[in-house]
Structures are given as C-alpha cells and as structure tokens.
Write a structure and sequence with these properties.
The complex is a heterodimer of chains A (344) and B (64). Chain A is built from eleven helices and 13 strands. Chain A is α/β, with parallel strands linked by helices. The longest helix of chain A has 21 residues. The model of chain B has no long low-confidence stretch (mean pLDDT 92). Chain B is globular, with a radius of gyration of 10 Å. Classes of the chains: A alpha/beta (344), B alpha+beta (64).
Chain lengths: 344, 64
C-alpha cells in the first residue's frame, strides 16, 4: 500500500503515539481537575507538560493560552461563534474549508473587514497563503500547516490559530489545539459551557484560562498521544523540514504534465490534486487503489470554494498527500500509476 | 503548614512544580470546604516565608 491521504489523517503515526495513548488507558485513565488523589494529579502534570511543550513549539508565551479541543473544526467554531454576529464583516484569505465556511454561513457573517480568516495551507491545492495583521481579528486555520511549516504564533500577530493533532503532527484523531492571543482571550465569549472542576459554585464559566474554554472532560488519552507526537516532531524538526521540501518539489515535478490529468496548482505543501479528463475522478481514485495500491482522496475535500477557484467544481479532484514517512520512490510509483490510467 | 488555593488546576500544577524546584515538599489535595465552595485543587506545604511564594494563579494562602 502507498498511503497518500495524509492531508486527511497521517499514517503511520509518529513513533510512541500509540504507546502513550495506550499507557494512559492502561494506567488508570484518570480524569484531571476533578478527583483529588495522586493518580489524577500525576495525570494533570502530564497534560500540563504537553500544554507547555505545545506553547514552546508554537511560540505562545503563556501556556494558559493553549486550549485543548476535540479538533481543529471545534476550535474554529469556538472562535467564530464567539466573534461573529449576523452582519459581522469577514475577509477570507486562502480557500476556506467547510469548517470555516459553514459556521460563517450559520452565523450570518457578511463580507467585510472585522474578522480575517486565513486558511494557511489549502487542503486541495497545497498552496500556502498569508495575511499580515491589520488590526482586525485574525484567525488562522492551520489544519494543513501545523507540524509542517514553522509557526510562531505570538510573532505572527494572529489572535487565534486552530490545528488538529492527527495531520502534520502525526498524533491521534479527536484532539485539537486552539491558540489564543491575549487580546482575544480577554474578549472571546465561550460557546460551550460545563464543568471545569473550578469555580463550581458559579453558573458562569471561569474567567481564567484554559478553564474558560475547556468544559467537560478532555480527550486525555489523545492528549497523551499528542504529547508523544510533539516530542517526535520537535526532535526531528530539521529532518521534517528537509523531507517536506523534497516531497513538495518531487510532487510538483512528478504530477505536472501528465496527459489527461490536470494539476490544479503548483503546491507549497507536499500535496497535489489532479482532475482527470478522460475518466471520472472517483473511478480514477478507485483504480489507483485497486490496481496499484495507492490510497488517495477524491471529491471536493470539504472545500468547494477551492475547487470553484481552481476550475474543478463540481467534479472535484483526486488528492495525493504525502506524510513524513512517504518516500520519493512511493511518489514516483504513484505518478506512474496515474500515467497508466489517465488515458481512460 | 499552609494551604494555597488557586484559580485553576493548571495554576496548582504550575505552583507545585515551581515549589518543588525550590525544594519544598508539596502535596496536592482537594480544597477544604471551609476555605472555598468552588471546588478545585489546593497545595499543602511547609514554607517559612509566605511572602516569597509565587503569586501567579494563587487565590489565597491559609494556615492549615
């Protein structure tokens, strides 16, 4: 099998992830911030270590501004739901995923300048986008870039950045991270309410971070896995950077100019999408796996705006996305497979 | 002996780690109900100079 669907979820995971998640479950799986016994306090210390490691890795001066969420989509909803009211102006930079487009539609956002939402890396084309701070609220969807590109959150002047554990960081599904600026942390209203194990005598959410935005029990075994993933990514930061650059260049070269398969855009990340001309894209994806063992993702990739902009709506495209463990040889095999089927 | 209460569990963990770096033996435990009804985690420790305790995240310091 040649697994090229890492933009949806990395495989394999970073070494140590499965063991760390399993160890949490096997050693008592305590909740934290609730029970007053040593097992729970030890667990809380491990979660704190991961929170602090994330802060250091992503350039957040105060680890309190690192909020665990159930995923990137959840974080985006928390921020958009707290900021957007009907008619609030929003400027989109990059191609928004439905994790951005749908909440904006549901909340009644309008085109305008109050909030900027930057999709830092397109999950369709692999293009990279940027948006310098301009005084409006700046929210960054880093689903495709976290763990792939260097991110200095405080330095980039953003107010919020959302990421998931299971893509570039090579961690488990079901865990995300929301980074908040000081100014947004002070202004953002919670959208999810519940127990935090603190200020329990009040109906209001606690004023302090991270409790204000972390009601309910977090995905603790997932956070344990994320901690192991982050340790691997941190230790291999330079190699990750070199490997991603090689993969990106190789994919741009290998997948361009294949007769019958149009490359949607030249990527800045190690992922490309092809629109097959002589056969249905779903048929192409099916044959790539059936005949060559190449796992891809076809369709609209939950990002119809990207396909509209790139001329591949509504038929979508077939996406090939490399991960840390993908070899150049595998990419060459995948490109050869495309060449073999592209004529129909 | 004293109890130290905090605004958040995160603050309690940070306090424990900092005081252990300073050589204190810190025990985390549920906040005594007579001190607060808001639940949470407190630290119990021996420390001569209460004024030198880290104050970030600290809600209150009480004699045990």
């Amino acid at each position: 099998m040649i697994f090229l669907d890492n933009a949806a979820g990395s495989y394999p995971k970073a070494p140590g992830v499965a063991e760390a998640a399993a160890a949490w479950l096997k050693t008592g799986a305590p909740n934290i911030g609730r029970g007053g016994y040593r097992l729970a306090y030890d667990g809380a210390e491990r979660v704190t270590e991961t929170r602090e490691a994330l802060a250091a890795f992503f350039g957040v001066a105060d680890p309190r501004r690192v909020v665990f969420t159930p995923g990137c989509t959840w974080g985006l909803n928390l921020v958009l739901g707290g900021l957007i009211r009907p008619g609030t102006g929003v400027r989109l930079v990059g191609y928004p995923h439905n994790a951005v487009a749908r909440p904006l539609a549901a909340l009644g956002a309008a085109e305008g300048d109050g909030v900027t939402v930057l999709t830092q890396g397109s999950n369709v084309s692999g293009e990279i986008f940027s948006a310098p701070p301009d005084g409006s609220w700046l929210l960054v969807d880093a689903a495709q870039t976290a763990g792939v590109l260097p991110i200095d959150f405080d330095g980039m002047g953003a107010d919020a950045l959302c990421l998931s554990a299971h893509k570039g960081l090579m961690g488990p599904q079901g865990v995300g991270v929301l980074l908040l600026s000081e100014r947004l942390a002070g202004a953002l209203e919670p959208r999810v309410f519940g127990g935090t194990g603190s200020f329990s005598d009040s109906d209001a959410m606690p004023p302090c971070l991270p409790d204000r935005f972390e009601p309910g029990t977090p995905n603790l075994c997932g956070i344990a896995g994320l901690g192991a993933a982050l340790a691997f990514v941190r230790e291999n930061r330079d190699e990750i950077s070199r490997r991603k650059a090689r993969q990106t260049a190789a994919m741009a070269a290998l997948f361009s100019d294949i007769p019958g398969a149009r490359l949607l855009a030249r990527p800045g990340l190690p992922l490309v999408s092809l629109d097959f001309e002589a056969l249905d894209n779903a048929e192409a994806a099916f044959r790539l796996e059936e005949e060559f063992g190449v796992c891809t993702r076809c369709g609209l990739h939950c990002a119809p705006a990207a396909h509209r902009a790139l001329g591949s709506f509504p038929q979508g495209a077939v996406r090939f996305s490399a991960g840390f463990f993908t070899t150049i040889d595998e990419l060459e095999q995948a490109a050869e497979a495309v060449r073999r089927i592209a004529h129909g | 002996m004293m109890y130290v209460t905090f605004y958040s569990h995160y603050g309690a963990i940070r306090f424990k780690q900092e005081m252990e770096r300073r050589g204190a033996a810190v025990t985390l435990m549920p906040v005594p109900r007579r001190l607060s009804s808001s639940c949470g985690t407190c630290a119990r420790l021996e420390w001569e100079d209460a004024e030198s305790l880290p104050r970030e995240d600290v809600e209150g310091v009480y004699p045990a």
